[in-house]
Each structure stands twice: as structure tokens, then as C-alpha cells.
Amino acid sequence: MNQIHITIVKDADKNLLDSVNRLKPQLNQWKPEPISMKWLETILKNPMITMLAAKDSEKIIGMLLLINWQNLYVKKFFIEDVVVDQQYRGQGIATKLFNKAIELAKQKGLDEIDLGTSTWRTEANRLYQKLGFKTGKSKYYSLNLKDTSE
To answer: Domain tally for the chain?
Structure first.
């Protein structure tokens, strides 16, 4: 393994698209369908989203998305789509991704960073707690707008 470095992804190309589509099923086995180049470009062009990639040489081995969000009382990042390639897990790569996210949040003068995860993702939950994240007082709800069954 070479030196792992964390980069901010600015542009979509075939390598990035292939990497995202290789990692996506490891992130969510229930929605493994590949994304399109157009979808990836839409994400990267959104000024409210920052994609971080962990690279081993030029191979993307992990990623996360930072969504810049604010309301009337707080400015924050919301972290989504955290994934490290199965064969690279346990080597501190997710910690490097999070450390870069924390660094960027501090540079932007944000107040906090939020994320959500499933309770069954025990390794991820352990990592988030180790990094200083705490469970909040809020409960998140979701409304599936594509579910037409009643």
C-alpha cells in the first residue's frame, strides 16, 4: 500500500465514476445500481456539496460527501455516503477522511458536523464515537416519495 492521501474532488471523469460505482454497493447493498456520469457531475457542480476521496496512488479507495447546510441558528456539514473499500478497511482511512472533513469545517467557521448511520453498522458507530461524535437529541425521519403503495 502506498501513501494514502485525501483530496477534494472537483471534476468528474471515467475513473471517478468507475470508482464511485465500485464503492457504492459496499455502501448500500440495497441500492447497488450504478450512478450515471450526469448524476455524478450534478453532485460535483453543486456548490453546497464537497466530495472527499481517499486515494492509494491514483486509485480511489474511499469517499464521503459533505453537505454544507445552515438554518436560522446553525451552520454545519452533514456527512453522507461514507465508504472505504472492503480490502482497505481497518487501516485508518475513514479516520483520515473524517479528519479532513473536520479541518474543512473549521476553515469554513462551521458550528458542527452531523451524520446519520444505521444501528447495525457497529464498526462505523464505534468509529464515529471514537472521533468525538455523540448521538443527538433529534430523531431523523424519512419520507419515501417514490413509494406509491398505501
So the answer is: 1
